[in-house]
Amino acid sequence: MQTPDGYVWLMTEAGLARFDGVHFTRFTRFRNVPGAIGSGLCVASDGTLWVGLEERGVVNLRGESPAYYAPGNGLVTGSVRTILRARDGAIWVANGASRFQNGRWQGWPIPEVAASRDTIAEDRNGTIAIATTEGLYLKRAADREFSRDPALSASIFRVSTDPDGSLWVMGPSNFGPVPEGVPGKEHSANFGFFKDRTEGVWFSNSFDRGAHLARSPRELLAMSGAEHLGVEEGLSGYLVRTYFEDVEGNIWIGTNNGLDRLSPSSFQAVPLPQFQAGTVKMMLLVARDGSLLMAPLVGNTLYKNGLGKTQLVSVGSPWIAGSLIRSTGGLFLQRRLHAE
Prior knowledge:
By secondary structure, the chain is mostly beta strands. Helix content is 1%, strand content 45%.
């Protein structure tokens, strides 16, 4: 998560960590707060950070003065592993269900036989869904209580929403048809979906480990993105646990073995229509107007790239390609011009 002050926060097995752009600072406990930090993490509409505790309860970080909420008075007991900010600004936690709104907690019990999977989601209509061992429990915006969806009464491992706000569930079959009346879809997506600012949708699944990026609805429906990033391509782990995009457009991927950051590239490809990329060596020179002059070492041609366009500016003998020479100071470009 990222708070309005620019800090990036992440939850790890060793506690909460804060990244300031250069260094990580780790927090394993908060002053005057009992218990170790758990795994729930959420940024509220007021910009404060909510953190779940392994030994029950939650903390709301407001500068240097954390507010601790102990179990009871509407807040669920047990470890808090999932925290959700709803569309109306309310804070929800799973393991049962509790909502913090207007300064107080309200709880909804889930039958003991239906052990919570600690995953909670909200669809585009404001329906709150909780995955349990006995199926999917739903509370629609107008409902007073949670009720089990009769079409999904088997164990549900995870519930999430796709970029359109529809609920998706992961069950023991991993993949199967959608029962009539179910408000979502059953598939093998392990850790939900994430939509970045370019409209690309990131997801992971059980069949092809790593991160997938779908750039069209067709690719998302097939659950096979046009782009795949795995350990072979340098990803820190094979199991993706979370995705996040910061205000600068960096994509953060948390895996079972570390943290990866994908940053927008500053490089741009300069097209040369007459040559296949990488097959011809070029001499390069920056002109006074900021454009780029390119002379292939094969042939007597000169290209100029400027304002996003590449054009042929000279053909023939007046231009003779030079060569790269090495000295103790590094590499230098040597250019010889012969005029007739």
